[in-house]
């Protein structure tokens, strides 16, 4: 079958396998790569399929499979009912967070990658959801559950899984290893072949896998093919930065890790070029975008600097840091874009703020989150100190005035944050609890003892329906306007993820971004203050100023003549088009 492969793809894969495992393994591993093609019905026809991966209608809802529940009904069916009723025309893709059987970390300690957790539903339920929406799946490939068959076979010394994990000497010098959590790196394990210590980057229930063993890689390539066959159009590579371990290094972003991602990209280019590979690396911006490679690695990366920058700017009434950062972004490689989000199932990561805002401002941000009822999680540094790692709070409450009440200013401030995220270059993604303006889940934190539970409330369907039926409720007001803005966005080619982006500095009080594609132009202006203002359109926005008239997509208001005066309420955004 190798002779049927595109010669350039063959060369790329051979070189990558050589760099990962050495020349003596290349031909055998290449044969194994080719043998994957056709698994689960995913075959060579990918080369001839259309490859538009995104456009101005693209947007993603991030949700757990059981975020909305109704008694004993499979939650995935309840989610489908919610999505069909509310999301059509506004959101085209649903990211179902890990839906396999798991033992901890709300799904990210996977027991069996090839099964759907029966507490959520079945593969049929997922495919039913996929009838009306595109689907995004997680590939949790850094680690596996301690309760998995893979780990049980390791303990029992049964091939091939006895070689799937990373044994390490607890006396070895591992001080250089980057630690995302303040937990022991090694976990003692008793096996039939003796006592040992295994590498556990995230917890003692999440056992890291050894990708220096090609059998591990091919296990996950097989799972990747299965997910594509089951309808995944975006595959999220969870915690990918920590994939490859090499003692004596920091074990993050190693060259081998990038080669694995590129190898997956090569495979997708052959069999499913429309499928998007998305890397999740909650690190400073320059490290994060390294996963674009030269346009030959991830198609999309999370825009991790955006959530804390937006939060900081709107808390302080100043867009200056956001403007400076957005202006500094380099052009993206071809066929690459950002995944623009403000909140997810995790907290708001603050490592991406390094070098962007002063440390004392970060400390003030963390203190304000605590005042609003949130928590601040820390990470261990190599020198033994700790520093803030993420803010644990719902994004809605993070932009509030106090923990007990919701004001009109609070709602406007929050909607401003979400609107900026959907107008920037990239694909906008909304977390379920941002869409529903959910308050902090203090009861959940008390029950689980985990700070991240504050942003993982499970709605009961009747409770959510009652709340949405009350048109005065923050949930109903936010969700209606949020979906309306997404629908309006989808009607304008200037919001295509590949459209040109120009950041315009018009002072600290406003954030201004111009988007343009094929002659379609929209200028987005957001008031970052709690005060009414009047902004005169002048030389900063020459195209808008020269036009006889322009109109605001969001309100329908028209502005006439040169020197147009734009009135902006507190935290208001306008999308001006000629």
Instruction: Find the count of extended strands (DSSP E, 2+ residues).
Output: 25
Q: Mean pLDDT, as a whole number?
A: 94
Q: What's the CATH H-level homologous superfamily of the domain at 500-577? A: Golgi alpha-mannosidase II
As a percent range, the share of helical residues equals 25-40%
First CA to last CA: what distance?
55 Å
Question: Which shape, going by the Cα principal axes?
Answer: globular
**Integer-rounded radius of gyration:** 24 Å
Determine the strand fraction and express it as a percent band: 15-25%
Architecture (CATH level 2) name of the domain at 500-577:
Sandwich
Short description:
The protein contains 18 helices and 25 strands. The chain is α/β, with parallel strands linked by helices and 578 residues long.
Structural write-up:
The chain has 578 residues and is an alpha/beta fold. It starts with 6 loop residues before the first helix and ends with a strand. The longest helix is centred in the middle third of the chain and has 17 residues, at 255-271. Strands 1-3-4-9-10-11-12-16 form an 8-stranded parallel β-barrel. It has a 6-stranded antiparallel sheet with strand order 18-19-20-25-22-23. Helices cover 32% and strands 20% of the residues. It has 18 helices and 25 strands. It is globular and about 80 Å long. It has a domain at 500-577: Sandwich (Immunoglobulin-like), CATH 2.60.40.
Task: Lay out the secondary structure.
Blueprint: H1 7-21, H2 26-36, E1 60-63, E2 68-69, H3 75-86, E3 93-96, H4 123-129, E4 134-139, E5 143-145, H5 149-155, E6 186-191, E7 194-199, E8 206-208, H6 214-229, E9 232-237, H7 255-271, E10 276-279, H8 285-289, E11 300-302, H9 306-316, H10 320-328, E12 337-340, E13 348-349, H11 359-371, E14 375-380, E15 386-392, H12 395-398, H13 408-423, E16 427-431, H14 432-435, H15 442-448, E17 459-460, H16 461-469, H17 474-489, E18 500-504, E19 510-517, E20 520-527, E21 533-536, H18 542-546, E22 549-552, E23 558-560, E24 565-568, E25 573-577
Parallel strand pairs: 1-3, 1-16, 2-17, 3-4, 4-9, 9-10, 10-11, 11-12, 12-16
Antiparallel strand pairs: 5-8, 6-7, 13-15, 14-15, 18-19, 19-20, 20-25, 21-24, 22-23, 22-25
Helix pairs in contact: 1-2, 1-7, 2-6, 3-4, 9-13, 13-17
């Amino acid at each position: 079958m190798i002779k049927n492969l595109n010669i350039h793809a063959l060369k790329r894969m051979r070189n990558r396998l050589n760099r990962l495992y050495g020349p003596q393994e290349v031909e055998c591993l290449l044969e194994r790569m080719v043998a994957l093609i056709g698994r689960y019905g995913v075959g060579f026809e990918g080369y001839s399929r259309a490859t538009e991966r995104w456009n101005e209608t693209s947007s993603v809802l991030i949700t757990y499979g059981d975020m909305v529940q109704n008694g004993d009904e499979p939650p995935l069916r309840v989610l489908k009912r919610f999505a069909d009723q509310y999301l059509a025309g506004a959101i085209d893709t649903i990211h179902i967070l890990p839906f396999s059987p798991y033992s901890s970390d709300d799904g990210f300690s996977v027991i069996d990658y090839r099964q759907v957790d029966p507490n959520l539903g079945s593969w049929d339920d997922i495919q039913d959801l996929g009838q009306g929406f595109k689907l995004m799946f997680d590939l949790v490939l850094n680690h596996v559950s301690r309760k998995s068959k893979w780990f049980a076979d390791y303990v029992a010394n049964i091939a091939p899984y006895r070689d799937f994990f990373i044994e390490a000497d607890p006396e070895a010098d591992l001080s250089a290893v980057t630690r995302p959590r303040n937990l022991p790196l090694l976990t003692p394990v008793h096996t039939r072949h003796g006592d040992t210590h295994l590498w556990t980057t995230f917890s003692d229930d999440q056992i890291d896998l050894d990708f220096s063993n090609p059998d591990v890689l091919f296990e996950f390539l097989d799972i990747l093919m299965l997910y594509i066959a089951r309808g995944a159009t975006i595959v999220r590579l969870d915690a990918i930065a920590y994939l490859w371990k090499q003692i004596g290094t920091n074990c993050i972003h190693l060259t081998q890790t990038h080669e694995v991602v590129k190898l997956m990209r090569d495979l997708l280019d052959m069999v499913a070029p429309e499928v998007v590979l998305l890397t999740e690396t909650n690190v400073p911006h320059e490290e994060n975008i390294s996963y674009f490679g030269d346009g030959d690695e991830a198609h999309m990366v999370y825009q991790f600097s955006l959530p804390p920058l937006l939060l900081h700017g709107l808390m302080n009434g100043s867009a200056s840091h956001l403007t400076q950062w957005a202006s500094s972004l380099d052009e993206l490689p071809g066929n690459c874009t950002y995944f623009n989000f403000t909140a997810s199932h995790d907290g708001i990561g603050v490592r991406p703020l390094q070098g962007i805002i002063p440390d004392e401002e970060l400390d003030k941000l963390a203190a304000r989150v605590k005042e609003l009822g949130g928590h601040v999680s820390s990470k261990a540094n190599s020198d033994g100190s700790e520093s803030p790692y993420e803010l644990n709070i719902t994004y809605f409450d993070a932009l509030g005035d106090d923990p007990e009440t919701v004001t009109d200013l609070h709602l406007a401030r929050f909607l401003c944050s979400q609107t900026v995220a959907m107008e920037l270059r990239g694909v906008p993604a909304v977390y379920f609890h941002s869409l529903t303006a959910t308050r902090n889940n203090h009861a959940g934190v008390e029950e689980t003892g985990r700070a991240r539970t504050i942003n993982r409330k499970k709605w009961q369907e009747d409770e959510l329906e009652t709340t949405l039926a009350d048109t005065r409720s923050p949930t109903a007001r936010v969700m209606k306007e949020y979906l309306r803005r997404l629908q309006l966005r989808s009607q304008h080619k200037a919001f295509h993820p590949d459209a040109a982006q120009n950041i315009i500095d018009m002072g600290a009080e406003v954030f201004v971004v111009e988007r343009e594609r094929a002659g379609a132009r929209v200028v987005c202006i957001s008031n970052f203050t709690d005060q009414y203002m009047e902004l005169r359109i002048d030389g900063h926005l020459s195209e808008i100023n020269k036009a006889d008239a322009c109109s605001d997509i969001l309100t329908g208001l028209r502005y006439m003549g040169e020197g147009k005066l734009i009135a902006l309420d507190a935290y208001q955004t306008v999308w001006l088009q000629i």
